[in-house]
Amino acid sequence: LTVDVRLDRLLALRAEMNGALEKQGVKLSVNDMLVKALGRALIDVPECNVVFAGNEMIRYSRADISVAVSIPGGLITPIVQDASGRSLSSIARAMGDLAARAKEGKLKPEEYQGGTASISNMGMMGIKQFTAVINPPQSTILAIGAGEKRPWIMPEGELGIATVMTATGSFDHRAVDGADGARLMAAFREYVEKPLGMLA
User: How many Å is the maximal CA-CA distance in the chain?
Assistant: First the structure.
């Protein structure tokens, strides 16, 4: 399920927050903010925050987001625990630590096994849109493409230029109905396009 998401407000908020966090030595990435948005969306649409464990489905009340990280010889998915409940600066610190240790091969199994849903961002490689493979036993993974300037119909109806990314959700249909997946994508887009909602 694919949606186009306008990034302008999120980028402006990121720039402002990074200015405020500079003294603490914290720098938020766009991906940190997308992890938070997905975490909040999964709490709003708990039907997608499930794993398919053989003969049963397990529904989670907390969103633990597995974040795809490229390492020599493959891919690993360190987990940001409680992504919906953490501050953006806490997510940024956790991701910096997890990604660094992932590349050194120093993650503990509990730091990359588990998680309730995944996010894979290939935007920094210039990929516009892709479909990510679900990370079993999870039922949901979000694929993030590059943010780029595109012609856009503005709220007043005039043509303008906006920074837009394409996000595609893949869902295990045994566990997640298409309509619930669509609700998750809509909730994710809402948090990204109105990012102050993530901080409330």
Answer: 52
pTM for this predicted structure: 0.95
- CB under 8 Å to 57, separation ≥6 — which residues? 50, 51, 175
Has 173 been annotated as catalytic? yes
119 closest CA partner among 142, 93, 137:
142
What are the E-state strand segments in the chain?
Answer: 2-6, 50-53, 56-59, 65-67, 69-71, 74-76, 79-80, 117-121, 140-144, 148-153, 159-171
- Which residue in 59, 128, 173, 194 is the catalytic one? 173
pLDDT digits (tens, 9 = 90+) for 96-152: 999 999 989 999 999 999 999 999 999 999 999 999 999 999 999 999 999 999 999
Decide if 12 contacts 144 (C-beta within 8 A): no
- Residue 6 CA to residue 4 CA, distance in Å, equals 7
